[in-house]
Specification:
The protein has 169 residues and is of the alpha+beta class. It has 6 helices and 8 strands. A hairpin with a 4-residue loop joins strand 6 and strand 7. This is IclR-ED domain-containing protein.
């Protein structure tokens, strides 16, 4: 069970992660309901651990690089990624295209594996997410093909790049 202190730390970190614009201590305090001095101490501790960083504008904060490292380690050890890597390599070798594996996570698609095409185009995937609702709505994502879990049809719906995205089953 988490202590009260751990609950507050997790809440402040989640608020920073969910903020549309980098929040400051006052906004974090107001949003969390915790006193400013408490939030200030939590922010300092999170910064010391590299979990959040100052953005350089108005004493605001964003997610830190250590979170990317932790997330990367987590997904590298994913049973799904390990189980799929051979099939992904076969697909990449057959198509000569870059192959991505993404999983749904809290309304977004999080990329957990990428096998490069033999072609020169490169894309950094570790910090990429794709909003599932935007994907279902057919927004354009140049150069990518992606599958979105769609419970209404009981399978993944594949979106292909083109003049307009078009789903196919």
């Amino acid at each position: 069970m988490m202590s009260d202190h751990e609950v507050v730390r997790a809440a402040v970190l989640q608020l920073v992660a969910d903020a549309e614009t980098p929040p400051n201590v006052a906004k974090l305090s107001a949003a969390s309901g915790y006193p400013r001095p408490t939030v200030h101490r939590i922010v300092a501790a999170l910064q010391a651990e590299g979990l959040i960083v100052g953005t350089g504008t108005g004493n605001t904060f964003g997610l830190g690089p250590r979170l990317v490292n932790l997330a990367s380690r987590s997904w590298e050890r994913s049973d799904l990624r390990l189980a799929a890597v051979d099939a992904l390599m076969e697909l990449r070798n057959t198509t000569s295209e870059t192959i991505h594996l993404a999983v749904p996570s809290q309304g977004e698609m999080v990329y957990i594996e990428k096998l490069e095409s033999p072609h020169a185009v490169r894309m950094d995937f570790r910090a990429l997410t794709l909003d599932i609702e935007r994907a279902r709505g057919g927004t354009r994502h140049a150069g990518r093909r992606y599958a979105v879990a769609d419970p209404s049809i009981g399978m993944a719906r594949v979106h292909l790049r083109g003049s307009r995205d078009r789903p196919s089953s």
